[in-house]
Amino acid sequence: MNERNRIAQNKEDGFLVAALYHFTPLSRYKELQPHIRTACDNHRVKGTLLLADEGINGTIAGTEAGIAAVLSFLRSIPEFAELEHKESRAERLPFHRMKVRLKKEIVTMGVDGIDPLESVGTYVDPKDWNALISDPETIVIDTRNDYETAIGTFRGAVDPHTKSFREFPDWVRNNAGLHNKPKIAMFCTGGIRCEKATAFMKAEGFQDVFHLKGGILKYLEEVPEDDSLWDGACFVFDERVSVTHGLQEGEHVLCHACRHPLTLQEAKDPAFEEGVSCPYCINERSADDRGRYRERQKQIALAKKRGEAHIGRK
What we know:
By secondary structure, this protein is α/β, with parallel strands linked by helices. Helices cover 31% and strands 22% of the residues. It is globular and about 60 Å long.
């Protein structure tokens, strides 16, 4: 593809979004941080990547050429040679800046000794997922948090109503009913949370544990809507807020005060003020908080008018 056609394609299709994670021993993750950041900056790629001694996790976005260059650089690192990623499109660049952060875990569960490289559930391809979760002998568990499950999930799935992944282990230990059926099927957005969730379940004594390979995103990409057992939209951690079947951008908006996704109807609620409050947080923030948020939103609007991205937006 020549450069003129590539530019035309980018203009037509918007930006490429790549979601990725890879568990691998990574003792030199601190050393790699500046090199990865430089590669992203050089190719004008934005997003967030997390590095820890257990691997890498994150989502990045940019032009098709920029994403290809960054992924090529990452795979040139021996520990990431087998790195896989999932692609989708966005009409606008869905991140305002690039962050490469050092963490204790690339997905935070907070339980010592859980290693997906040693023990993990059985992967189930999207084409086989419907049969598994339709089996009456299967308990289906949504491992995501409450603000994510609020806008969509699989039919019949159990919602733990967790506010963070750290709450998931206690939820499992306090639910004896999870032992009532022989099979446990688990899913999450892109697959990474289930790597640890299924490893944890096996450590807790569950035998037949399965998880959706590639997560909800891969299912929505590959399974036709007419055959789908997914209801609603899937929350994503960028400015698109949600995606639907075929990984099309959803119609949700984000409350930038509490990070809760809102339907278009909820965005019409009198409690919603962009960047300041919404029906979910209006009673959880003080008048002083809302005053600060209102000033921040004013600065964001002024920056947008100047054609700039406001650095305060997360």
